[in-house]
Amino acid sequence: MQALARAARGFWPAAAAAAGRGNRGQVQPSRGIVVHVRDGNLERALQVMERKMRSSGIERLIKRRTEHHVKNSEKRVLARKALMARVRSQELGKNLRDILIKKIRSV
């Protein structure tokens, strides 16, 4: 266990600092989504977990990572949506830049 802690010192500075101070009994704060099951109500806990996943965007990341066949027509639709989003973003940037230039020149 100590060898593992020594090896981890180089990777995580916080872990190295904690190991150097001797904080052996403390629990590290958990990362990600935490859901508590109250009164053994697992169905309700699952609903809460799904809601938290949707709101945090994890669901989209998981869907994006899954490797499955995408039809060519679907690829075209996705490519067109991405293109339109880029165009809208560029147009918005141009409009904001023009507004800022007008404000600067009027001052």
UniProtKB/TrEMBL annotation:
Alphabetical list of Pfam families matching this protein: Ribosomal_S21 (PF01165)
Annotated keywords: Ribonucleoprotein, Ribosomal protein
Molecular function per GO: structural constituent of ribosome
Classification via InterPro entries: Ribosomal_bS21
GO terms of biological process kind: translation
Gene Ontology, cellular component aspect: ribonucleoprotein complex; ribosome
Protein family (similarity comment): Belongs to the bacterial ribosomal protein bS21 family.
Record protein name field: 30S ribosomal protein S21
Organism the protein comes from: Aegilops tauschii subsp. strangulata
